[in-house]
Amino acid sequence: MQLRKEFSSEVDSAIAALRGLSATSSCGAADLTGLFRVAAHEAKKSRAQNRIFRVVLIYCRSSTKPQHQWPVNQKLFTLDVIYLHDKPGPDNCPQEVYDALVDALEHVSEYEGYIHESGQGLARVLFRHMCVLLSHPQQRCPQEYVDIPKSLTKKSPASDSVPGEDSVPISSQ
Question: How do residues 16-53 score in pLDDT, each as one tens digit?
Fold first, then answer.
């Protein structure tokens, strides 16, 4: 587990942190309890400064379900998860891992936490998900109501509007 504790609102710092991520060959248990302890400690310090503390977990192990031992009533920070996984196979159980990550997120998050997943492994997918997660936790709606990213295709205007007194047709000559 790689823990980054540098805090900055600089875009370049976030991009550099993402580009600096690398895979490790560690195959041990995926216990998130230590991460949650550090996050709770940092969240208490943030609260004293009237700030909200968020953790963005980038989880890339489709064969190992994460575990934790954390009190149900201790929600001091917001957890967001980006889950990058392999396709299902004999050694992979991405749906079970996803379900365990959702359970962890709901168990520890003070505000609305989001989980994004991808089996594509593309850098642009990671960046797109990270952009969504950089929104302020208190301004988030429940994830099932989020309709992003929007399609880049041009939408046609609604055809059910009826020209009335207030609308004037415009023609170009």
Answer: 776 777 666 666 788 999 999 999 999 999 899 998 88
Cα separation, 105 vs 70, whole angstroms: 11
Q: Write the Ramachandran bin of 121: left for phi over 0, alpha for psi from -120 to 50, otherwise beta.
A: left
- The verdict on pTM exceeding 0.90 is no
Number of alpha carbons in the 13 Å side-chain half-sphere of residue 164: 4
132-144: string of b/e by CB count within 10 Å (b at 16+)?
A: bbeeebeebeeee
pLDDT, tens only, 55-75: 888 888 888 999 999 998 899
Label residue 87 exposed, middle or buried (CB < 10 Å: 0-12, 13-18, 19+). Answer: exposed
